[in-house]
Design brief:
Elements lengths: L1 H11 L4 H22 L2 H4 L5 H26 L3 H27 L14
Helix pairs in contact: 1-2, 1-5, 2-4, 4-5
């Protein structure tokens, strides 16, 4: 929702296309991961470690959001660009939180789908 709100702010403010493109891509990628997990497609397609792909997406998005949203806030051609930049920084914090929570959740040492081995 935050990415969609940032996208709407950038589009309404007629800001630089890069701002809207980043917010739009993050919205689309987030929706795709949401559908992937809701439809349990991650369990069917075991060829990729999906939480790790989600972590990689969040790290890359965080880097892009940091740069683009700081530029949007610094240039602030109008209030819509400023609002989109602030919402983008909130989205940055959410992406970092997502990375931290997913890193705590996954463990590459234990076997997938099995309980701990008996001693």
């Amino acid at each position: 929702l935050v990415a969609t709100a940032a996208l709407l702010c950038f589009v309404a403010a007629k800001a630089h296309a890069a701002y809207a493109a980043l917010a739009g891509m993050e919205t689309a990628i987030t929706l795709l991961f949401l559908l992937l997990y809701l439809l349990r497609l991650d369990a069917r397609m075991r060829c990729l470690l999906w939480p790790l792909a989600d972590i990689l997406n969040s790290v890359i998005a965080s880097l892009f959001l940091l740069v683009v949203c700081l530029f949007a806030i610094i240039t602030r051609t109008n209030k819509g660009t400023l609002a989109g930049g602030v919402l983008g920084l909130i989205l940055l914090a959410l992406c970092i939180t997502d990375v931290v929570l997913l890193c705590k959740k996954i463990s590459l040492d234990k076997a997938r789908g099995r309980s701990a081995p008996a001693k």
